Amino acid sequence: CFNAGFSCEKCDFETDLCKALHESNLQPGWIRRNGRSGMGPPYSDHNGNDSAYFLSLSPEMRSSSATLRTNVFLPTDKEHVCQITFHYWISQMSGTLVVGLQKLSEDTITNIWQVSGELQNQWKANTITINSTEKYEV
Fold it and tell me: A Gene Ontology CC term for this entry (predicted)?
């Protein structure tokens, strides 16, 4: 997320998880790997770099789900816009990627974007804009 007119924090998984994600909360099912891992596609990141790291579901997770949760972001307003751009790869027809928003005052997670059933075997990019009058996690 970034403030309008200020710099954008970039996250590439090269050394660890992003500052935006809970450092200690790489939930079971997610692994940090690169295209040389021998685990099948993708064989590179979205820039075509086979040694660059990305997060991937482990092969054992085919039939279930795994969550990535961000740290807490501050409320948004006209001066403080939150936009998150991410690259994703879906290699299963049955796979679904969901982005959810959880306000700190609520127990429920509201789905704000999702994609499924696109067996494209290519990286795609998406940008979501988030509006929240209170602190939240994605």
Answer: membrane
